[in-house]
Amino acid sequence: MTLKQYLILMFVASLLCWGGLLAVVVGVDPMSGGVVALILFYVCLGMALVGTLATLGAIIRAKISPVDYAHVQVSRSFRQAIILTILFLIALILQSRGHLAWPQFVLLLGLAVVSEAFLSAFKAKNRV
């Protein structure tokens, strides 16, 4: 699969996920839906964010560094999209419960940076 095919596929999948999120927001009553509605909302939002961030990350990486291999750019952007999405979803859940303040957000951001550094180092160690 070429980088162009990957980007088109991820773009279409992201649009479908955003459409699914829109359907959940418009069609599901959060008061009567309960836990299932919240899980559906967070899953749709997470999938839409991962797809969008991975696509944008791959495009930016391809423009900035066109000499890298496409699979390296895609794997890095996908990994970072997952980390950012998890960070965003945890912050959103904490905010909905009234537990998000600056110290918690800084801690979450630090965990995201440490996990990215660990995963980057782990990948580099396995390549050698």
Q: List low-confidence stretches.
A: none
* Radius of gyration based on Cα positions: 17 Å
**Which class best fits the helix and strand makeup?**
mainly alpha
Note the main sheet: none
* Average pLDDT for all residues: 91
How many separate domains?
1
Tally of separate helices? 4
N-end to C-end Cα span? 25 Å
Order of helices and strands: HHHH
Helicity level, as a percent range?
over 70%
Q: Can you count the beta strands?
A: 0
Query: How large is the share of residues in beta strands?
Result: under 5%
Shape: flat
Could you give the topology of this structure?
Elements: H1 3-27, H2 30-64, H3 70-96, H4 102-127
Could you describe the 3D structure shown?
This protein is mostly helical and 128 residues long. It has one domain (3-127). Helices cover 88% and strands 0% of the residues. It has helices at residues 3-27, 30-64, 70-96, 102-127. Helix 1 packs antiparallel against helix 2 (30-64), helix 2 (30-64) runs antiparallel to helix 3 and helix 3 packs antiparallel against helix 4. The longest helix has 35 residues, at 30-64. It is flat.
Task: Produce a short descriptive summary.
The protein has 4 helices and no strands.
List keywords for this structure.
128 residues; mainly alpha; 88% helix
